[in-house]
Each structure stands twice: as C-alpha cells, then as structure tokens.
Prior knowledge:
This protein is an alpha/beta fold. It has 8 helices and 12 strands. Helix 1 packs parallel to helix 8, helix 2 runs parallel beside helix 3 and helix 3 crosses helix 4 (113-131). The N and C termini lie close together (12 Å). The mean pLDDT is 96.
Amino acid sequence: MTAMKIGLVIPLNNAAAAAEMAVEAERAGWDGFFVGEAIWSIDPWLALAAAAVRTTRIRLGTMLTPMPLMRPWKLASEAATLDHLSGGRAVLGVGMGATWMGWQAFPDYPTDARTRAEMLDEGIDILDILLRSKQEDYVGKHFSLRLSAMDTMHYPPPSVQQPRLPIWTVGVWPRMKSMRRVLKCDGLIPAVMDADGQFTDLRPELLAEMVGFVRANRTRETPFDVLVEGSTVGLDEVAAREKLLPWREAGGTWWMDTMFGVAPEQLVAHVRRGPPRLE
C-alpha cells in the first residue's frame, strides 16, 4: 500500500508567523506546509521563501494558486525561485480559483467558468514549458510564448527538481475535461460534482474511481500524488488514524490537514502535537 504523507494547510495572515509555523511543523514531523493564494492577500511566495530558508526537510507550496489571476511566466519565476531556495522542496498547486474570495472588487479579471478553465489549461501548458527550460513557442487564446525569439543565455537556472517541480491541480469527477487536465500534472486535488452540476462530498469510493482513471490514462512517468483535504483537529490518535486509513486505501498519497477557521492557539497546539500516525 502506498505510504501517505501528512501536510498542513494554514490561513495566511502574517508572513513572519507563517515562516515560524513552518519551522514548528518541520520540528513536529509534518511532511508538508502549504498556504493559500488569493486575489489580494499576504504574498504566499514571500512567506514560503521565508519558510524555505529556515527549514531543511518539509515540503512547501500553495493550496492553491488561482491560475486566471496570474501571468504564467511570473508564476514560473516565483515557483522556481522557491524551488532553489528550498533545495528542491517546492510544490505548485493550481486551480481555477474561488471567485467568491473578493474577485468582485477587481472587475478586470474574468469570473466565468469557461474562461477561467481555458486560462488554467493554457497556464499549465506554459508552466510546463518554462519550468522545463524548453525553447518552444506557444499560441493560446489568453497566453502566448515565443521562446524561439529568446536566446537561452537569458533563461533563468532550471528547477532543482527535474524534469521540473511538481504541479498539482484540481480534478472534478466525473467531468472528463477536468480530469484530462490532471493527466498533464503531477498531482490530483479531488472534487466531485453531481448530475445537477453542484459540488458534493468526496467519498473514498469516488476517490478510488478517480485514481483508477489517472492510472489508466496518464502517460507521464513522473511520480503522481493524490491529495485529500480534511481536518483531524480535536481527534485523538486512534480517531485520526481511523479517519485517514480509508483515504489511503482509496489511493490517497497526501492527507492535507486544513486549518481554516481554527483559533490561533488551537492551531499552534495542533501543529506542535505533530501529524497523525498511520502505523
């Protein structure tokens, strides 16, 4: 059975506090430390950079970056810089973005699902080109590259992780267009939609179906992660283990303990307690 890593996803309100929390998380044995990215917020890449220079082992990344808000080349620069600072521990999580999180205040950004999906697809394609340091051209509806016109002497250094740092993205089951997008990436952030087009709860048996689809259709030979988001706050060791085991059996490789809505003192205590133990 695949081992399951345990990560933290924390609210980002203070970059210095986030870096300190990453240090505490690494000391307590957590495998990953992740922060969100919003349309207007504390910059997650600066916070993660601060965490990178104070830690040595723990994985660092975003959960998740809203691709329609980003210029792919700028995002590639930020992610690759974190990869270098951390010695190859960076992970980039991307999605269409949650428009309810303040997007109405910035009318220049698209909010319709079709456009955001197009920008996510194109963004992933361009990130793959840039993070692999390929000299390729790309023509999309929203983004384009003409790297054939750029001398490679001006390229930034390649990622520490090869062939590039991991990209995780949201996959909505059973929406095949969304799931095919996942096949281009290195990790699945699962979501489920019912026949009426409404998001519904993820269950282990549905995750197993998603994992089966990826295994049957993915052609890349790089490692692939499957994330499950939830919370073990307030659970004892036995209850936490019982909560996580069905997800590991369904093919989950990461449990993401999400800390949104948790009081600061409880969050600190939970981090210092360490991750649930499955063995």
